[in-house]
Amino acid sequence: MIVSFVRSECYHNLAIQTQMVLKLFLSKRPIFLHPHCVSSSCRNLDTTTRLSRRIATMSENKSPLLERARNIVPHLETHRHKGQAGRIGIVGGSLEYTGAPYFAAISALKVGADLVHVFCPQAAAQVIKSYSPELIVHPLLDSNDATMQIEPWLERLHVLVIGPGLGRDRLILQTVSELIKICRQLQKPLVIDADGLFLITHDISLVKDYYGVILTPNAIEFCRLFGNDRDRIMQTLEKLGRGVTVIEKGLNDRIYDSLTLEKYECPQGGSGRRCGGQGDLLAGALATFYFWALECKQEISPAVVACFAASYLTKNCNTYAFKAKGRSMTCTDMIEQIHNVFDDIFEHKKE
Description:
The structure is a single chain. This protein is α/β, with parallel strands linked by helices. It has one domain (64-72, 86-345): UDP-N-acetylmuramoyl-L-alanine:D-glutamate ligase, CATH 3.40.1190. Helices cover 49% and strands 11% of the residues. A 9-stranded mixed beta sheet has the order 3-2-1-4-5-6-7-8-9, with helices on both faces. It is globular, with a radius of gyration of 21 Å. It comes from Aedes aegypti (Yellowfever mosquito).
């Protein structure tokens, strides 16, 4: 399939390159192809870059979890209507942090959700609206009756992401605590990230025994929640109650399932470039994948599969963007790669 659109004079060189790349990749060693390995006629087609990317994808794509992640992706069918692919809510943003809720929201949209609502303070609303006309922005989070105004919207949403750019204003955190309690009553699936995790660290009862919550801590946030003794992680996870899933972000993202008390290692990926916003991209993508997984009747572990899918997508967005931009890569560059990564890895292909 890959070679079918390459000129005939490239076939021999491509076969050699394929063997080289596969051998190097399967041995888990870095792949370096010398420019002289590629003939001038092939180099014009940028075949080596595309080939190495696809071979890497094929080699890594043998994971059972990845196959299950592909299965939850809904087919693009003409009889579906707006909203069926996901209505996602983002609770976050502050005067200082307007990029984080935007990154999470636009990532949820670009992965495939139909509608995304952002609930933020008044000071952040106009800025977030200026970033994209695609988002529905509600400047309600710091209003006097914020809970009363936001609650009617919650029933319409499939998954809520709490935390990107939220900040640590005491009154706003109190409002968010009330929203989490309402979401528990509604049995609303939640993804809690960033300053949402700061809130949870100070009041773990908010998520204890909350079936359907996913926590997305980075290394520092993970230590705050679980301590430094990695041998006691599962014991601490049990204290959160059954139904809480945790994805620990790092070189290898790790998924902890409180239902089965199992740990899953996600593949390594990405680059040495650690620009801000990658966790927001993951949180937004996770919300969309999570809704799809919950809708898939064949999937028995929707939270675990959604975490794997979001991790794998984010790592590959980093890889693709770094290949194009190198050290100057930003989260915006990664978001621009969501389509390419999704198309290469998750999209249903016509036979």
